[in-house]
Design goal:
Pfam families: GST_N. The protein has 105 residues and is α+β, with helices and mostly antiparallel strands. Helices cover 34% and strands 15% of the residues. It is built from four helices and four strands, in the order βαβαββαα. It has helices at residues 12-23, 43-48, 67-75, 96-104, and strands at residues 3-7, 29-32, 56-59, 62-64. A four-stranded mixed beta sheet has the order 2-1-3-4, covered by helices on one side. The longest helix has 12 residues, at 12-23. The radius of gyration is 17 Å and the shape is globular. The relative contact order is 0.17.
Length: 105
């Protein structure tokens, strides 16, 4: 079985993951989890994601359940070069260049 995405397109993080996969031509099987019906609280979904949150990605036995992690994992199946900009998302004290500056001072 290939990549499975557990999403509800009513959720903005789910839409971001869905659009990213479609735009980059990443093949996946969509598993709709209807949030308004409470399907994310079901025992069946808890086996996929014990946190009972969407989006979730399942690739064989490997499961991710955080939207940024899902995007990062999916990017490795597409073009990993976009992750080079991920440093901008970190607080200044976690950035490599900032630490290097602090060590030189």
């Amino acid at each position: 079985m290939g990549l499975e995405l557990y999403l509800d397109l009513i959720s903005q993080p789910c839409r971001a993951v869905y659009i990213f996969a479609k735009k980059n031509g990443i093949p996946f099987e969509l598993r709709t989890v209807e949030l308004l019906k409470g399907q994310h609280h079901s025992d069946a979904f808890a086996q996929v994601n014990p946190l009972k949150k969407v989006p979730a990605l399942k690739d064989g036995d490997f499961t991710l359940a955080e939207s940024l992690s899902v995007l990062a994992a999916k990017s490795s199946k597409a073009d990993p070069s976009w992750l080079h900009g991920a440093n901008a998302w970190r607080p200044p004290w976690e950035r490599t260049s900032f630490r290097r500056h602090m060590q030189l001072s």
